[in-house]
Design goal:
This protein has about 260 residues and is of the alpha/beta class. It has helices at about 1-20, 25-35, 50-55, 70-80, 130-135, 150-160, 165, 195-210, 235-260; strands at about 40-45, 85-90, 95-100, 105-110, 115-120, 125-130, 140-145, 170-175, 180-185, 190, 220, 230-235. The chain is rod-shaped and about 110 Å long. It starts with a helix and ends with a helix.
């Protein structure tokens, strides 16, 4: 009975301390010894490990539930890379629920050998290695080069008008922060002009629809000049072209020789 009474009055004292705005280290240790230790329950997380949440709160006073400053703890959790917003709620005697809303990945951005996951605004969420990026975010578009992350959402929105072309793009490369190169999954590179690239995209779609341009044995198609389109053949295709021209020259030479003999 004495122990129960002490625990009851101790609980009242602890509750009063919380209401008064703080808990001293001594009271905190007493509360922990009385069974008011902290258990963290994390929900809403996908990319954020509960272990990271626990580790981030290591600097908090976690001796007892009463000793946890929820405002400071929330800010600490929201400092984690993937966390956009967090709601922390105390449930006495010893549980804290942490509801997490994570940031939405939009694309993978490559700068040199560095890979980062970015939001639609271009804001960096977290760095990734090549294996993680390809495994977890292989379905996200890949933007390469300085400035590509900030303009990616706008450019991708314009590419929606050309779904057949967009489905073939493996990387959107920003060149000298002025224009775009589209690297296709077939190995073909489409060089777009700095200005009026929508006109070039329309032309590419038409050439591909009528002549199957993007399925041909070529390395690059250059649309940077307004009055012409330049094709670069692949090495194998160029070798075949040279061989065909040489064979054609031989045939013409034989024909001319035969005609001269008849004359």
């Amino acid at each position: 009975g004495w122990y129960a009474s002490a625990l009851w009055f101790g609980s009242i004292f602890l509750y009063g301390s919380v209401l008064n705005g703080g808990v001293s280290p001594v009271v905190d240790r007493v509360a922990h010894a009385a069974g008011f230790g902290v258990e963290l329950h994390v929900s809403g997380n996908d990319m954020t490990s509960p272990l990271d949440v626990h580790a981030s709160l290591g600097g908090q006073t976690l001796q007892s539930l009463a000793g946890v400053d929820l405002i400071s703890a929330r800010k600490t959790v929201e400092d984690l890379p993937w966390v956009e917003h967090a709601i922390l709620t105390k449930y006495y005697p010893q549980r804290i629920n942490i509801e997490i809303r994570e940031r939405t990945p939009f694309a993978v951005w490559q700068r040199g050998n560095r890979l980062t996951v970015v939001e639609k605004s271009g804001a960096v969420i977290a760095e990734m290695d090549a294996l993680t990026a390809s495994g977890c975010f292989g379905d996200l578009p890949l933007f390469v080069g300085p400035g590509a992350e900030k303009l990616g959402a706008i450019f991708l929105g314009e590419m929606n008008a050309f779904p057949n072309l967009r489905n073939k793009v493996s990387a959107y490369v920003r060149v000298a922060e002025r224009r775009w190169d589209l690297h296709l999954n077939t190995g073909v590179v489409l060089k777009l002009p700095a200005d009026d690239y929508n006109k070039a995209l329309v032309e590419i779609s038409e050439l591909d629809s009528v002549y199957g341009l993007l399925e041909r044995d070529i390395e690059a198609v250059d649309f940077r000049l307004p009055d012409r389109v330049t094709l670069k053949l692949s090495e194998e295709a160029d070798e075949r072209r040279v061989a065909a021209l040489e064979e054609r020259a031989k045939i013409m030479k034989k024909r001319l020789k035969a005609r001269g003999a008849r004359l």
